[in-house]
Design goal:
Elements (H helix, E strand, L loop, with lengths): L2 H16 L5 H12 L18 E2 L5 E5 L7 H4 L7 H12 L20 E5 L12 H17 L5 E5 L1 H11 L21 E4 L2 E6 L4 H4 L6 H15 L3
Helix pairs in contact: 1-5, 4-8, 5-6
């Protein structure tokens, strides 16, 4: 697919995500969070819709998270933007040469990703950061559509077990990969690596405060996963 047509098709996926109201519980929660924000965000206009992916349509690396945070991406309208997880992730992407700046503040801050795409298994903020299986399954077709359009993808960096599970579930629906998933099913772990058709899945602990504040995930650990992703795509 020509680059212009691919970008337009990805814009179409983004528009569908932004307009999505399939999951009543998630719609109610994202709007409730916007209506009663913490004091530090009072007066801000919340996005309070499904949050589209972002990045380079020619990306060779995709990062797959869990879902938007209620007062992060649900507020700003950009994945991993407006919370501590995003602060950690974008700084790491910048160190890896995949982002032009180490911060992501809002959709107008000039951020540009080079060779990377940031997406998630679920596109609306869920209560307690825990989507139901039904909500996950309703949302995964958006990820499948993105993977089909991102023809240059070679590495899927799965941020946490939920992202890993989502990636495997989506690859199980795609003709080119559904018969190639190993049995037993590959288990998530930080640094886990498995080849499935044209893709290599890499596991990385999610950059949540529960992981970064406790030292379960460190900057060198994050950098090592992204360096491996870049290594795997060198020359592609």
């Amino acid at each position: 697919m020509a680059a212009k047509a691919r970008a337009q098709a990805l814009d179409g996926v983004a528009a569908d995500i932004s307009a999505c109201t399939i999951c009543p519980r998630l719609v109610a929660w994202r709007e409730e969070a916007a209506a009663d924000p913490p004091k530090r965000f009072r007066g801000e206009d919340y996005w309070a819709r499904g949050v589209p992916a972002l990045g380079d349509p020619g990306a060779s690396i995709a990062l797959i998270g869990l879902a938007p945070a209620a007062h992060g991406a649900n507020r700003t309208g950009r994945m991993f933007t407006g919370d501590r997880s995003g602060d950690w992730l974008y700084a790491a992407l910048h160190r890896a040469g995949l982002a032009n700046q180490p911060t992501s503040v809002d959709v107008n801050d000039g951020l540009r990703l080079d060779g990377a795409w940031i997406t998630a298994a679920v596109r609306c903020a869920p209560p307690a950061n825990k989507p139901t299986p039904g909500e996950r399954d309703a949302c995964l077709p958006y990820l499948a559509r993105e993977l089909a359009l991102l023809e240059d993808l070679r590495v899927l960096v799965c941020l946490g077990a939920f992202g890993w599970d989502g990636a495997l579930r989506v690859l199980g629906t795609i003709a080119a990969t559904r018969d190639l998933i190993p049995s037993p099913r590959p288990k998530f772990g930080h640094g886990a690596e498995v080849e499935i058709g044209p893709y290599t899945l890499l596991g990385c602990f999610h950059p949540s405060q529960q992981n970064t504040f406790t030292g379960r995930l460190t900057e060198p650990m994050t950098d090592a996963v992204l360096a491996r992703a870049v290594e795997l795509t060198a020359g592609s």
